[in-house]
Amino acid sequence: MQGQNKEDLTLLYDSFIINYFGFLSLYALDNTGYIRIYANNERDVQLEQINKNNHSEAFFLKEAFDSGILKSYIARDMARILYKIKSDRNSEYQVDEEETRNNISGILYWNSKTSYRVREILYKFHSGDITIQEISYLIWRLSMLKSYKPLCYDIVEIIKKGHYYDKFEDNKYFQI
What we know:
Blueprint: H1 6-29, H2 34-40, H3 56-66, H4 72-87, H5 97-104, H6 110-113, H7 116-126, H8 132-142, H9 149-161
């Protein structure tokens, strides 16, 4: 994290959180729809093998690890979760909310380095105020803000192609 300016660091934190947790959220919302097709298009998600050709959730996980944002054991656990999802042909894997909350604790300085809106989403999930599925709705709402649109692009594309916005109900937890 040394040598990076504050804006670049916040951008990396936000990109990682939006893409990784957005992906997990959509998978938890419906692991049989379009997200299944998207997930099965990628296999190499072992931390050492991830590169710029991977999907954004894996790519930003690797970038976060390389930048020192994630503790090594947390990055490996997050990569293991991606591997389980992407190698699960029968849609049997279920995202474990408690494990996901524990992994958030391994993201160094997330409560001070992320932008306010992303921090609010992660805090509400970490504290148990919202479920993993609700994260995707909040990212969908966040993508409507011009400054977040590029960060949310891949997740929004999955939401559109999978018609996940049909599953979203009016959410009382977060107002943009």
